[in-house]
Amino acid sequence: MITEYKNEKGNRMKKILCVIISALFVLSAALLAGCAKDPAENSETTDEITTVPEDTVIKDDLPEVSFKGKTFRVILQEDSSGDVFTEDHEIGEPLHDAVLQRNINVCERFGIELDVSKDEYSAVNASITRSVKAGSDEYDLCFVHMVSGAALAQSNLVLPFQKLPYVDLEKPWWDKDIWNGFSIRNNLMMVNGDISPRSFSITSCLYFNKTLFDKFDLQYPYELVRSGEWTFDKLYELTKGMTRDEDGDGKVSAESGSSDIYCLTSWYLDVPYSFYYAAGGMLVSKDENDVPYYDPNLERDTIIYRKIYDVIIGNNAYFETNIGNYMRVIETFFEGHALFYDSTLAAAGTLREMDNEFGILPVPKLDSAQTDYRSFVNGASSMICVPATVTSESQREFVSIIIEALASEAYRTVTPVLKETYLKRKITRDADSADMIDYIVRNRVFDMAYVNMHDGVGSYVRDLLKSGATDISSMLKKYQKTAAKKIETIVKAFDKSLK
């Protein structure tokens, strides 16, 4: 398999050429299956491949057609490379090799080539915007950050998925939770699911230091999670009095070299959102026609905010607001100086190298009456969208067939490896934490207010915590008119795209 990329200037860097002979396909499959290891050989890096029994696999309804070497053009950010690995060989890393196998399967099945362009975050959006406004047909599929996708949608630069005939968003390989947050008039401008393995890693969770739990004779919260009793009240109890001046200098510090302990280490662009949405918060509702409207619930949000405030401000957590100190948030936990750490599943890869033992938990519920644990999906999560330059009926058929194929093949080939081998075995240290992964990814939360009003009402909890304020009513009232008008603008832009 020949590989080659190209940048936006057209310099040939690399491109996946997927006209692959059957022998290579069979060899790749054999190598992928053969990279399993005996758990007894290495308990920390068990890399056996999880497969789905053939008779229980849900398959797509795509026509069997050959596009005779036609190129399918993808653009993505550098940090989303894991969604479409472009190497032409396996490297013995299960997730990488599963994505590679997905690509091979789709290329062989439909006789296509994949052309992948990569660039930094801001440059990708600029490239898509420039291409669509110029009317140049450069891309068929875009992997973008969630907030970027929302901006593209508002500018009518991407297609509603309703116009892509072979993408079936009712299939299990598409994330159903997105409908609650992003759909308008029962349609979507950006989606994700199994097609983007990276999106799972951007799901919020809570880490706890098991070594410190043992030191202070605290019970691991695993059974609280399983019984449905893992709530913010329990988190408050566990964190109360745990921020300590261990070096006796009269202050608690997160500076490097300090031996002080924090009850929680957190970043102000993460924890306000992960806590708020985990507790059932939502700022936008939908009417009977699936049209969004600004709908804050003052009574509910007052309760939610108070519980968040008590844990972070009341219990003197490390709540970092200076971007220059961002790395100290994870370093404080990594060095064994925090009981809890709010982050995403992606952080576990780094934490596996820490000396102290750690565990993974879902973010707590508001109370035991709340039905499910809810996990916020960070704005850096990958979403896919299709540029508005895909205009002809034949091109939309081609693009939608390949998108659906990449997603459905990932559902069968990539996701079992992602969940069972990567998330549950490679990034965790114990069976209980592996069990927690299911609770974490089961109910993922997306909110229109967060992605479209990130510096307004969508960030009111962040702004209140940063100021140390306790009253939310004035803040919600402040945004009433601007939020309602913003949503009206979003709906109008969406309606224009549907025409």
Description:
There is one protein chain. The protein has about 500 residues and is α/β, with parallel strands linked by helices. It folds into 2 domains: about 20-200 and about 380-425, D-Maltodextrin-Binding Protein, domain 2; about 205-375 and about 445-499, D-Maltodextrin-Binding Protein, domain 2. The chain contains 20 helices and 13 strands. It has helices at about 20-35, 95-110, 120-135, 145-155, 175-180, 195-200, 210-215, 220-225, 230-240, 270-280, 300-315, 325-335, 350, 395-415, 415-425, 430-440, 450, 460-465, 475-480, 480-499; strands at about 70-75, 110-120, 140-145, 205-210, 260-265, 285, 290-295, 320, 340-345, 360, 375, 380-385, 445. The strands form 4 sheets. Strands 8-5-9-4-10 form a 5-stranded mixed β-sheet, sandwiched between helices. A 4-stranded mixed β-sheet has the order 2-1-3-12. A hairpin with a 5-residue loop joins strand 6 and strand 7. The longest helix has 21 residues, at about 395-415. It is globular, with a radius of gyration of 23 Å. It starts with about 20 loop residues before the first helix and ends with a helix. Residues about 1-55 have low confidence and may be disordered.
